[in-house]
Amino acid sequence: MENSRIYLSFFLYKSRKNKNGTPVYLKITLPNETGQLHTGITVDEKHWNQQKHHLRENRPEHKELNKQLSLFKSNVLATFNDCLEKDIPASIDIIKQRINGDNNGDVRTLLEAFRLHNNQLRQKLGVESTKATVTKYESLLKKVTRYIEYQYKRKDVFLKELDHRFVVNFEIFLKTVDLISHNPAIKYIQFLKKITNMSVAHGWLDKNPFLNFKCSLKDIDRGFLNDDELSKLQRKEIPNRRLSAVRDIFLFACYTGLAY
What we know:
The protein is mainly alpha-helical. The mean pLDDT is 89. Helix 3 (110-123) packs antiparallel against helix 4 and helix 3 packs across helix 6 (182-201). A 3-stranded antiparallel sheet has the order 1-2-3, with helices on one face. It is elongated, with a radius of gyration of 28 Å. It is built from 8 helices and 5 strands. It has helices at 60-85, 92-100, 110-123, 131-152, 164-176, 182-201, 227-235, 241-256, and strands spanning 7-12, 22-30, 33-43, 48-49, 54-55. A hairpin with a 2-residue loop joins strand 2 (22-30) and strand 3 (33-43).
């Protein structure tokens, strides 16, 4: 991937020196951009080792501050590696948001939101959700995962990347790649809309990409069997016990009007 390298180094932001000392910043260099991140640590300039980019460890408190700086640097690197593992582009903005814990700029991914939603469904199984519903959302998760790999050549996308085009192309993917007919495809898209609605409610997504997308189902003439056809089906000898039971259940539903 393009942003597969990162360079990190601490420096003193001398122009922001105050009565407490000089703030230590971490310079972050990616292939396409450079930024800086405040570590929250201030030091006395005379104890700073400019060549090694940390404090001279001639005092116990300096060793502790250097440990804090190392941990800060490790967290930044872990955030960057997390983006690489998910095959999503890292940026200075994303790193800053995750390190600073900016809830207003939550950088969750779509699949993270999906798994959270599905886990909550499983927790409510038998109370507010059914096994069939959980199965439908797990199936949708697999389809969305394949779609992201097919369309974006990545393993995941950030929620803030979702737009109207994402939804339109997902519909095309379902119909042309997965070969799903219109109504089932729209049903999957309606389920996906619930994920984005949840993300908006949690503040992870500012604008719902479904805002101008119409999830319209088409009226379909399903047809029906007449009395003569039902009688033929009833008299039909079916050697296979499983298929025979399926036939009997179908006939029962036809004669009683019960769906299950």
